[in-house]
Every structure is written in C-alpha cells, then in structure tokens.
Amino acid sequence: MRLLIIGCGSIGNVLATAAGSMEEIDRIYLTDKVEEKAKAMVNEHAKSSYIRFDDDSILHAMDDVELVVEAASQEAVRKFAPICLERGRDIMVMSAGAFESDALRERCFELSKKKRGRLFIPSGAVCGTDGLRSAASSQIDEVRLITTKGPEIFRNVPYLIDKKIDLGSLTEPTVLYDGPAREVLRLFPKNINVAATVSMLGVGFEKTRITLVCDPDTRTNSHLLIAKGPFGEIRAETNNTPFPTNPSTSYLAALSAVAALKSIVANRWIGV
Known about the structure:
36% of the residues lie in helices and 25% in strands. It has helices spanning 10-20, 35-44, 55-62, 74-86, 102-115, 129-135, 158-162, 181-187, 194-201, 251-266, and strands at 2-6, 27-31, 48-50, 67-70, 90-93, 119-120, 142-149, 174-180, 209-214, 221-229, 232-240, 242-243, 246-250. The protein contains 10 helices and 13 strands. The chain is an alpha/beta fold and 272 residues long. The strands form 3 sheets. Strands 3-2-1-4-5-6 form a 6-stranded parallel β-sheet, sandwiched between helices. A 5-stranded mixed β-sheet has the order 8-9-7-10-11. The protein has 2 domains: 2-121 and 252-266, 3-Layer(aba) Sandwich (Rossmann fold), CATH 3.40.50; 129-240, Dihydrodipicolinate Reductase, domain 2 (2-Layer Sandwich). Helix 4 (74-86) packs parallel to helix 5.
C-alpha cells in the first residue's frame, strides 16, 4: 500500500512513524504548507518521500496511492477531500469539523457512495463513539458533550478576543460556550473537531449540545460524552494527555488514526 499524508504536525508525525513500521506499506508521501517541516519528517521516517504542497503535486500523488490522510486543517479537508473521493480514492479525515458544512458533508458522502472511495473519520480524542453509533441504529433522545481544556488551548481565538474574555485572569473553570454543535465548530474551528464526529454519529449538528469549559488548573483535554434514549444511557469520560509541542492536540487523537490505519491495512474491523 502507498500512503499520502497531508499535514506534518503532531498527528502526521505519529502516523508516519507507525506507517513506516508496517510491512504492508511500501511508500509514504509527506506534504505540508511549511516545506521545512515536511522535509524534516522525511529525514526521520522510513519509506517516506517529500512532495510539494501544491495542487499538481498532491493530485499526482493521489493517483499513485491507495489512501490519503488529512492531518492538516479544515481548509485542507474542504479542498482535497472532494477531489480525492471524486477519483475513487480512500481518504481518512482528522479535521472532522469541516463537515459542519452540510454542502461539503453531503457532497463527500455522495461521492464516496458513487465513486466507491471510502471515507474514514477516526474517533479522535473522544471515547464512546462505538456505543453512540450503535444507539443511532434505533433512537437517541439526547446527546451532550462537555469538553474541558486549559487556557493555552484557546489563545488567539477570534471569538474570545471579540468578547474581550481574558483567559489569563480566570481563576476557576469557566464556560466559554454552551449550545449547538454547529455554532461551536464555527467559533472554535481548531479546538473541538470531536463535536463534529459526535454530531454525525448521533442526532446531528443542531440537536447535539456542546459545553466548552476553560479550566486554568487542568493539565488534560477532557471530554464527557452523554447520550440517552430507549437503549439506556451512555456516559464516556476521556482525560487526554496533550502533545507537549501542540497542547491543542490530544495524543489519543493520533492513536485513533494509527488504529484506523491498522484496520484499513489488515481489512479487519472489530468493535464496529
């Protein structure tokens, strides 16, 4: 198998390391907006080659691979996911928040069905998605996600700057947002991709309620997923260790990508 990874940050790095050790994977193409970052990763990982971050290079690589992995941004999803699926290629998307757009989501879902390219969205940094997916086969009455992160995660968020919220002055856990998933994904596009994953699995972007909390004393990125319905109740709590170099990304999110890649390579799915 040949693999293209778009984005050479924390998740892309972990995934490239894992892919390099898989005997089923022959070649890994790496690209990033920051050329130096991608070239540095190529020097560190077996089986890897650098390609430029431009349309021609990426499209050419898509024709030579079986799987594309987006580990860059929602912008990259919007640009490359439809193209990839139009070509019948499989793609794994990590920046699931991009699918808050009904038009993009429906287009990608339809292309996947029509062109037979598979769309994979790993569970990311939240647990309980397996139960949520199962419950959705019947009926779900309520889905709520309570996410708590430290102040450094939310620095330079335009919404908070406009609201004149001084994160440095917080002395206790403070709710930054409480409402539908759709709006939180627009206001915090880099901070809570799991809200999109939960919404797509359960009751949708309008009915899924998200509470986003900033805790000045926390050292983890935590998620409490609650779902209720005729099936009973799901309560899944996850306390994630952040990457030291990128505290907005949880290590478990990268591991979910590795686990998905292992399943794809082996064509073996357990717990679905």
